[in-house]
Design brief:
Largest sheet: none
Strand content: under 5%
Order of helices and strands: HHHHHH
Structural class: mainly alpha
Shape: globular
Length: about 140
């Protein structure tokens, strides 16, 4: 890990405890998106890209990719449950759909395309993701 990188916050970490304790739903979302950004900056974009791109040629990596996707979906479901609560979630959007869309949108492919290929800063990515999730899923 580089000197300026932060460790990836696990769902049991103090960072996620602060998100769960935050009473303001907009702040909860901002904190969540920031935690996601930290994960990508810490090297998860390289790990996820490597696993998913190489998986078709290696049965062991296929299993790792399935396991990684299931874990990401499980973690995203846990996060979505305390970020997109019934009182702030748009009534026309199911929580399971939010989880699926977050897994697809906040992915290594998206980060790699926007940040590495198109030259976005991680600050710009974080602002975009926050705005997209807020407009798409919150009342």
């Amino acid at each position: 890990m580089a000197r300026d990188e932060q460790p990836v916050p696990s769902l049991e970490s103090e960072a996620w405890a602060r998100v769960r304790a935050e009473p303001d739903p907009i702040q909860r979302l901002k904190m969540t998106v920031h935690n996601a950004r930290q994960a990508w900056e810490s090297g998860m974009v390289d790990f996820e890209s490597m696993v998913f791109e190489a998986a078709p040629s290696d049965p062991r990596l296929q299993e790792l990719a399935r396991t990684a996707l299931a874990a990401k979906r499980r973690d995203s479901a846990g996060i979505a449950a305390f970020v997109f609560t019934d009182d702030v979630r748009r009534p026309d959007v199911a929580l399971d759909d939010i989880v699926d869309l977050v897994v697809a949108i906040d992915s290594a492919a998206t980060v790699r395309t926007l940040v590495r290929d198109l030259g976005w800063s991680y600050d710009k990515y974080e602002r975009w993701l926050f705005d997209l999730l807020r407009r798409s899923f919150m009342t």
